[in-house]
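In response to reviewer comment 3 from the previous cycle, which asked for concrete evidence that the modeling workflow produces usable outputs, we include below a single protein chain processed end to end. The sequence was submitted unchanged, and the resulting structure tokens are shown without manual editing.
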Amino acid sequence: MANQNSPQTASLPSSAQIPAPTVWPFVFAFGLALVFAGLLTSVVVSVVGAILSIPAAVGWFRDVLPHECLETVPVEPGVSPIVARQAEVARIQIDPEIKRTRIPVEVYPVTAGIKGGLAGGVAMAVLAVLFGVLTYHSVWYPINLLASIVYAQALNMPLQHLLTFHPALLLVATLIHLVASLLVGLLYGVLLPMFPRRPILLGGFIAPLIWTGLLYTSLGVINPLMNKLIDWKWFVISQIGFGLVAGFVVVRQARIRTVQFLPFALRAGIEAPGLMREKNGGHDER
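The workflow returned the following structure tokens.
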């Protein structure tokens, strides 16, 4: 520590002014995020965001304009001694017997996701048709309602028309259901190996409830008319039915080991006799 009476420190002021800390920028950013989040969820969320962001913006500007709010802090003169250090590299001792493992260790083939998606799609279709028969005494109501994703004019039809057979709506609903089932089935094939302990819990309950909740909170803004026509109790039942059947079919398929089980030479593409095929088309020696 330098001498307080030295010429270098005698001319230093005893205090300094710095910009005062303020919480308003954080509150304003949080409120603005709620305003935009409400566009996809509920108008109540946007209202809460506006209530937070408007006074936060006013408070922020008052801290800056017309004069910036300053805070006085004491100044303690001193000179820190400069000490040279010799840089050293710290090395971690790793047991040579331990090998790095990449997760997942085993994966399902693409066909497992396709089979699971098709089986889950059949289960969901059966539950949807059962809902139509028990509620509206018609198997065509859930089919026509699904087709209205593309044919929006179907939502404006009288209820009696939604209970009757329409070839075009049947074709569109079948394509939508088939594509969506295959995509979700492939997603199950990718995700379920990462949760090997309780895959049915994830695929049969957790995942269907998550995407049902997201759809329930956003469909009222995206398509309010369809939101009124959907029976959400049966919708959740059909999604869980899809997840249980698709997850069960996927986990029943044989897994494939990832490339981490292969020798390093084979993974690196090095010509290693006995480990890989020869260039002339010959097979390996194993």
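The mean pLDDT is 81. We consider this sufficient to address the reviewer's concern, and the full set will be provided in the supplementary archive.
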